[in-house]
Amino acid sequence: MVELRLPKNSRIKPGNTYKATSKSEKIKEFKIYRWNPEDEDNPRMDLYEIDIKNCGSMVLDALIKIKNEVDSTLTFRRSCREGICGS
Fold first, then answer.
1. Is 66 within a domain?
2. Please, which residues have CB within 8 angstroms of residue 38's CB and are 6 or more apart in sequence?
3. Which domain CATH number covers 20?
4. Would residue 62 count as lying in a domain?
5. Which of 54, 43, 46, 37 has the alpha carbon at shortest distance from 18?
6. Residue 56 counted as domain residue
7. Structural domain of residue 36, as residue ranges?
């Protein structure tokens, strides 16, 4: 059987883990693919634990919370809530 693999420079490595600071029962994990084309490092998967009691109900709300409160280096494209679909 043939086993296919990604090239070494494209394999995803474990990234940083950001634990929730509160002891809530409503903690959700968000795994976010991170890659910087300016670095020679491989892509990584960062793990964020977010208390969704203090967050809106959409994934976009969680991403905004992560960017504003946990990791300001997170960047993402968004058009939600602007009345423009298809970005």
1. yes
2. none
3. 3.10.20.30
4. yes
5. 46
6. yes
7. 8-70
DSSP 66: I
Residue with tokens 């990234």: 15
What is the pTM (predicted TM-score) of this model?
0.80
Taking alpha carbons only, the member of 5, 7, 63 closest to residue 34 is: 63
The per-residue pLDDT string of the chain (87 residues; one tens digit each, 9 = 90 and over) reads 899 998 988 899 999 999 988 888 899 999 999 998 898 899 999 999 999 998 888 888 999 999 999 999 998 877 766 666 655
Total domains in the chain come to: 1
Contacts of 56 (CB under 8 A, 6+ apart): 62
Beta strand 27-34 pairing with 44-51: antiparallel
